[in-house]
Specification:
Layout (H helix, E strand, L loop, with lengths): L3 H29 L4 H4 L7 H25 L7 H17 L8 H8 L4 H29 L13 H34 L4 H17 L2 H28 L7 H16 L10 H12 L4 H57 L3 H5 L9 H21 L28
Length: 415
């Protein structure tokens, strides 16, 4: 049965998704309506060998992302393979769903693996802060290496931009390393405004989560891995661009040209699967480097398509692993129960009927009564699981194998 609140939530989700798809379609139309497709098609698509090499780089980036998440939860022992599946599934959800709503899957998956929710949330916030910091660092250094293309922006000077980047970087470092005091300061403000103990307790949980992931050594290790991650992303883009014939562009050119597209994907402003927003950022960045609009837009489409295919492949592999883990555990438990049941039946079958009906003491059950009670409890639990809410310790009473004799009370149930 669907509850009214559930249907309202589904309507809101479909509305957001529809709005995101319309926005993506509108952005693509505005971007591509002036493209010279006779020229652009020469850049589409990259060769299969180029794509396979890019897929290998993409898979390596996922390994680095997994190592970073492991660094941010040092007190929690999640197997590397399981953590890889979690981050891969999270990458697919966060890329495909609009407005970065898929990000919430990371702490949820981690909670299912035994990591407290507040630790997962804090790890996600810190990792995304480090992502932004690394992208800003690479963008600034690539701009300086190329002769400061920022200076040719409409602002007339790159100084205001660099100052804003410096302020943003300082804020991101503060979030990554000092999240707990910041959260507790918020709690103090909430307490002055009369916030309840439940709310304050939740805020304190989040603060403790930041203390777990915000240790300086862990953050330093995570930031080093983050730099390697984004160097890998730029290498991924460079391989694809060379495969499409942009041999004149080096890795530094690609790093700067792709930075706008990367930022629009990192910030919570993107549409469904980043379609439209990434293409606009990519086209702007490469037009700024002297690439024609048609070629820049065509390369944006090709690169984004390869990226989505890779994320889909790796994400589906991760989802199959995450789904297989509960199934394997269920199969193991059912097999163990089946072995125990077979052993019980085999043991009881060897007991003579007279001995099975014999009570060892007036207040003790016979073998037949114990087996009868086990069968009744099994049937009752199966019925409750299938049709009724769980009730605390009730077993259906059935007539015992010992006839009309009263049976001792079963501790923990009513039969």
């Amino acid at each position: 049965m669907t509850l009214p609140g559930d249907s309202a939530e589904w309507r809101r989700k479909w509305f957001r998704l529809s709005l995101s798809l319309l926005a993506a379609a509108g952005l693509l139309y505005l971007l591509l309506r002036g493209v010279d497709w006779s020229t652009a098609w020469q850049r589409l698509p990259p060769s299969p060998w180029t794509w396979l090499l890019a897929l290998g780089i993409h898979a390596s980036i996922y390994v680095l992302r997994t190592l970073r998440f492991a660094a941010l939860i040092p007190d929690r022992r999640v197997p590397f393979g399981h953590l890889w599946s979690i981050q891969s599934a999270n990458q697919m959800a966060s890329l495909l769903l609009p407005m970065r709503t898929g990000e919430i899957t990371y702490p949820i998956y981690l909670r299912n693996a035994g990591v407290p929710l507040e630790v997962g949330v804090a790890g996600l916030v810190v990792s995304r802060s480090l992502d932004l910091l690394a992208v800003l660092t690479i963008t600034v250094f690539s701009a300086i290496f190329l002769g400061s293309p920022i200076d040719s922006m409409p602002l007339g000077s790159g100084i205001p931009v660099i100052l804003m980047i410096a302020v943003a970087a300082a804020g991101l470092i503060a979030v990554a390393t000092g999240g707990a005091p910041f959260i507790r300061a918020i709690a103090a403000i909430l307490a002055r405004f009369g916030a309840g103990l439940r709310i304050l307790g939740r805020v304190e949980q989040v603060a403790r989560g930041f203390e777990t992931v915000g240790r300086y050594r862990a953050v330093a290790e995570a930031f080093t891995l983050t730099l390697f991650i984004w160097v890998g992303v730029d290498l991924f883009y460079w391989v694809l661009m060379r495969g499409m014939g942009f041999d004149q562009m080096g890795p530094v050119d690609i790093a700067f040209g792709a930075s706008a597209a990367i930022l629009t994907n990192l910030l919570p402003i993107n549409t469904f699967a980043g379609i439209g927003t990434q293409e606009w950022g990519w086209t702007w960045g490469f037009e700024h480097l002297g690439i024609g609009r048609s070629e820049a837009a065509a390369s944006a489409l090709a690169v984004h398509a390869a990226q989505l295919i890779n994320v889909g492949i790796l994400g589906l592999i991760a989802q199959s692993q995450l789904s297989a883990k509960p199934r394997k555990e269920q199969t193991r438990v059912l097999a163990k129960l089946a072995r125990s049941r077979a052993l019980l039946l085999e043991t009881v079958a060897r007991v003579p009927p007279a001995a099975a009906e014999l009570r060892p003491a007036p207040e003790r059950w016979s073998v037949a009564e114990i087996v009868d009670h086990l069968a009744a409890a099994e049937e009752s639990i199966a019925l409750q699981t299938a049709h009724r809410p769980r009730e605390a310790g009730r077993c259906a009473a059935r007539g015992g194998a010992s006839g009309s004799r009263s049976r001792p009370r079963c501790f923990g149930c009513d039969s």
